[in-house]
Amino acid sequence: MSRRIAIVNPNSTVAVTEGISAAVDDLRRADGPAIDCVTLGEGPPAIETQDHIDGVVIPLLARLKAEAADASVIACFSDPGLAAARAQMEKPVFGIAESAFRQALTLGRRFGILAILEASAVRHRRYVAELGLSAALAESRPLDLGVLDLQDRDRTFARLVEVGTALRDRDGADVLVLGCAGMAGYPADLAESLGLPVIEPCRAAAEAALISLEGAQQA
Description:
By secondary structure, the protein is α/β, with parallel strands linked by helices. The chain has two domains: about 5-95 and about 200-219, Rossmann fold (3-Layer(aba) Sandwich), CATH 3.40.50; about 100-200, 3-Layer(aba) Sandwich (Rossmann fold), CATH 3.40.50. About 45% of the residues lie in helices and about 15% in strands. It has eight helices and eight strands. The protein has helices at about 15-25, 50-65, 80-90, 95-105, 120-130, 155-170, 185-195, 200-219; strands at about 5-10, 35-40, 70-75, 95, 110-115, 135-140, 175-180, 200. The strands form two sheets. A four-stranded parallel β-sheet has the order 2-1-3-4, with helices on both faces. Strands 6-5-7-8 form a four-stranded parallel β-sheet, with helices on both faces. Helix 1 links the parallel strand 1 and strand 2 (about 35-40). Helix 4 (about 95-105) crosses helix 8. The two termini are about 15 Å apart. The mean pLDDT is about 95.
């Protein structure tokens, strides 16, 4: 029986979903689980505020249940509804932020987060603290760009380099985490520019899901 991972983008912007799919494409194998990236049509075009996060949870949970995948990924860096999804679903559910933070700890001592907005950075610091990882956080700094602004590649990359440099040189980060699923197209170029590992969170969560399914198959 074929297995399947569903990566659900909780915003309704299809271009973001397409970027996520491209970021995980080389994880797809003919003999491995299918990796399907889907868009939550009921979601807002961008998830940038606490109201957006709270409002998307109910339709997101319904979509995760409907997908009925062997493992699921919530592809929003705020990990909306993650605890509720894990409580309600029998199969594993991964949040991209939590997955990225834990992967960062395997690559360096202190990670820096490239946030979209200052309000996002505040949420990141709080979430890292809730996970008990504050000692490993160098800082979360904003690009001051909204989710939809990230489609402007030249502008976004310039800000990623500027903010990533600050995280590296001022804050002492030795690993960088992209703090939005909409940044999925930038990790390789940014890593080359700054000389640091750069974690794309959707890929980190997909890798965690694959490991989980491999472990379950071997058990």
